[in-house]
Amino acid sequence: SVLSENKILEKYGIIKPYIMYVGNAYPHKNLEALVLVYQEIENKNLQLVLIGKEDYFYQRLKTLVKKEKIKNIIFTGFVPDEELDTIYKNTLFYIFPSLYEGFGLPPLEAMMRKIPVASSDIPCMKEILGENVFYFNANKKENISKAINDFLKNEELRTELTKRGLQWVKKYSWKNMAEKTLAEYKK
After folding, report:
1. Residue 2 has pLDDT above 70, yes or no
2. In three state form, how does the secondary structure of the chain look?
3. What φ, ψ does residue 119 adopt, rounded to 5°?
4. 155-169 and 105-112 are packed helices; what angle lies between their axes, rounded to 10 degrees?
5. What is the pLDDT of residues 22-76, one digit of tens each?
6. 176: pLDDT confidence band, cut at 50, 70 and 90?
7. In this structure, are residues 138 and 33 in contact, taking their beta carbons and an 8 Å threshold?
8. What are the pLDDT digits (tens) for 116-130?
9. 26: exposed, middle or buried (C-beta count within 10 Å: 0-12, 13-18, 19+)?
């Protein structure tokens, strides 16, 4: 129900509009750069919701945000799945500024939940996500803020990438994976 959705957002101090990231805060995830550029976001009401279990790295990030007095950053800590669904459902897009990945699962999860994704353009992510997300070079801070501002303005592109993303993740279904794995074994 609408009420419980609003209550869930309220519980974490989330006010729409917002963009989100789910995952850990290890240095290669590049969240430090993401929060530092947040002051340059054109929409001064836009919140950035960072979801991940409270640990040393998130603690460090929180300290940085406090020290630099960066506004509109929400740290939720761990969020149970049923509440996570609500947070996903109401976000404008998912942002993934990672500088290095083995296999980037979180953007695929966002796509599966009909959420448009903005991702760093590292080769591994391009391979996993195809042409179905909004890419940016995350090595430079100004590229991150520009990507957020540009993607926010382009609702048409967000809608288009949501549709394409949903088609794309179908190829990653578990049944599909299991069949391919089995086929490999049979070879």
Report:
1. no
2. CHHHHHHHHHHCCCCCCEEEEECCCCHHHCHHHHHHHHHHCCCCCCEEEEECCCCHHHHHHHHHHHHCCCCCEEEEECCCHHHHHHHHHCCCCEEECCCCCCCCHHHHHHHHCCCCEEEECCHHHHHHHCCCCEEECCCCHHHHHHHHHHHHHCHHHHHHHHHHHHHHHHHHCHHHHHHHHHHHHHC
3. -130, 155
4. 100
5. 999 999 999 999 999 998 899 999 999 999 999 999 999 999 999 999 999 999 9
6. low
7. yes
8. 999 999 999 999 999
9. middle
Model's pTM, two decimal places? 0.90
CA dihedral 15, 149, 147, 83 (to 10 degrees): 10
In the prediction, which pLDDT does 182 show?
A: 77
Torsion sign over Cα 35, 39, 42, 44: positive
* Chain centre distance of CA 143: 16
Best CA proximity match to 110, nearest among 95, 125, 122, 131: 95
Nearest in space to 132 (alpha carbons), one of 153, 101, 154, 108: 108
Distance (Å, rounded) from C-alpha 33 to C-alpha 20? 15
By mean pLDDT, which of 39-48, 76-85, 133-142, 166-175 is the weakest?
166-175
58 touches 31 (CB < 8 A): no
- Closest C-alpha to 114, from 135, 93, 84: 93
